[in-house]
Amino acid sequence: MRAWQILKWSSTALATVGVIAAMMFTLDWRGGGEGFPKLDAGDRALVSRGKAVYASHCAACHGTNLEGQPDWRNRRPNGRLPAPPHDATGHTWHHPDQVLFSITKDGLVPGVTAPAGYESDMPAFKSILSDADIAAVLAYIKSTWPAGLRGAQQAATSEASAPARPYILPPARRNKSGRAQAVLRSARRLLQRALRQERCRQMATRIRKADKPRLTAL
After folding, report:
1. How far apart are CA 203 and CA 127, in angstroms?
2. Is residue 95 within 8 Å of residue 156, measured between CB atoms?
3. Which of 99, 69, 66, 93 is nearest to 81 (CA)?
4. How does DSSP assign 61-82, residue by residue?
5. What is the CA radius of gyration of the chain?
6. What is the structure's pLDDT at 26?
7. DSSP string, 11-52
8. Domain range spanning residue 86?
9. Interatomic CA distance for residues 102 and 69, integer angstroms
């Protein structure tokens, strides 16, 4: 692997771990554990509830059929992006449950779920919807995706939920050589995690391409 590729993977890994760490600190997420809703697209009652909540609070911007606003990839004169689609043509399924829940509840927070300085028309719904309603809306959105995309999104959720395991150097080996070895081990773990995420992204892309003819037919 060339030097620039190593640097690219290293920066990607560090950025990924930083974002995930920020999300874990902010949400104390447990993937549907005690005190936190589960975004279960297979729960028919939850999906039905979410469909009604979506129609009341989300459809005005994101579309009755989750199609988003026109030309959603291009910025408006004010520099903000239109509301994206939540169906299979958008990028909602790229994000793990933790991020989707946080964005819906707290809005796009610069430095946490958006780049620093980012401005958006997406409001925070924490004072409007309960956590259960937010979970229901997201479950409904997820239920509309093809099985392949749901699988890819679930893989991203599982990856984001996996606790980081930092390498702690034993006291007897805390010398210059030991510190260098610890840094290398930590870097190797970061690179391996980035590679797994890249493989997941590539898998999702292949799935989306395979599903495209069927979606077009629909």
Report:
1. 37
2. yes
3. 69
4. HH-TTS--STTTTS--TTSPPP
5. 20
6. 41
7. HHHHHHHHHHHHHHHHH---SS-TTS----TT-HHHHHHHHH
8. 3-217
9. 22
Number of domains in the chain: 1
Tokens of 75: 């910025």
Residue type, 144: T
Q: 10 Å Cβ neighbour count for 153?
A: 23
Rounded CA gap, 201 and 55, in Å? 30
Matching residue, tokens 């620093």: 116
pTM for this model (two decimals): 0.63
Side chain identity at residue 71, one-letter code? D
Which amino acid makes up residue 136?
A
Which of 208, 187, 166 shows the shortest CA–CA distance to 12?
A: 187
The H-assigned helical ranges of the chain are 3-27, 44-57, 59-62, 97-106, 131-143, 147-161, 176-217
Using CA atoms, how far apart are residues 8 and 178, in angstroms rounded to an integer? Answer: 25
* Cα–Cα nearest to 37, from 52, 23, 22, 27: 27
Q: What is the pLDDT of residues 37-85, one digit of tens each?
A: 889 999 999 999 999 999 999 999 999 999 999 999 999 999 999 999 9
Quick one: pLDDT band at residue 112, thresholds 50, 70, 90?
Answer: confident
Hey, which residues does 110 pair with through a beta bridge? 114
